[in-house]
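cron nightly-structures :: item 1 of 1
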Amino acid sequence: MSLKGGMRGMNWDEWKEREKMYACWLCNFPYIGNKQLHRLSEICGGPEGVYLASTEIWGGVLSPEQVTRLKEYTARWPPGKSYDRMREQGIRIVTVKDTEYPKRLKDISDAPYGLFIRGTFPEENVPAVAVIGARECSEYGKYVAKQLGAVLGRYHITVISGMARGIDCISQESALEAGGSSVGVLGCGVDICYPAQNRELYNRLARTGAVLSSYPLGTPALPQNFPPRNRIVSGLADVVVVVEARVKSGTLITVDMALEQGREVYVVPGRVTDRLSDGCNRLLRQGAGALLDMEEFVEEVWELYQRKGGAACRGILQGAAASDTMTARGLHLPSELAVVYQALDFSPRSAEEIREKLPEKCREQQIVSCLMRLCVEKLAIQISPGRFCRTGEESYE
């Protein structure tokens, strides 16, 4: 890729690719902080501007030692060849100015300037839940993580985690097995699988989800890398769930970060005699939400997501059986949606009032989820919090 010519003779896509090349050069420089990356890019008008800037301009943001290191680094780093090598590994880079940069992460304080990504980031118009917990988890913790990951995957809620041993990888594997999506956030370069024993999960995420990191390629998994990594994990999620954690646990650092970012925190309660649940039980005492039922939790996540301005619950019941359907202008409703629709009229009613109008055999199903899906299909409308009625826009046979 030529380094000459600027915007002249290039279309928008070519210019954006050129900017990514220089972003790769800038973000692979290891001796620079995130705030400095933001500031340099802002002053110079983007990564290419930083590359072409004088050492005097660099010195307005960097220390003399950093300027010297950046000058030496630039002299031996060919942006075009290095960028091509990265792309050949299936790795791409996005910066905070790119439209494909995760929206949730962009909204946090001091968002990472650049992300190296292997795979395809899942669609963002669905909720995302970070599942975190102990590496050396109990059999109970393993069971809960597996069940939770599977439920989230089934309802197309993206699972965010750190791909670590224990709770992290179990929840991510289960989500993928259930047909869902997941994102692994690493505390090392995205070209490194850490821990090595999770190579199969790493490869699968790269194929069907995404693995990402804010660290330069080749960065080893150092202890100091993980608190910033955890900040990205919570930043990518709407809700953080702690499955198991001791009182003195790195997991609780992630919880603090999540609360600073305005994320909801849920915990899985444990026995008072179980040290692996001490951290969770303490969080409960401090006001965290209790995850007591998987299906109810899914409803709460969707409702929270919608209240925060997200899309309505599109796809929440995609895994439901489609038999015994009802037809409307060529559309088909699963039987559980059809029976809830039949119970609606043009007077706003609460979910419990609607439940009472259902046949006895149908009263155990997730009414709120069905109502949200009917709202998506524009067959129902939420008049006020918790009260629904028909829209009158559709005529069913």
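cron nightly-structures :: done
The two ends are 60 Å apart (CA to CA).
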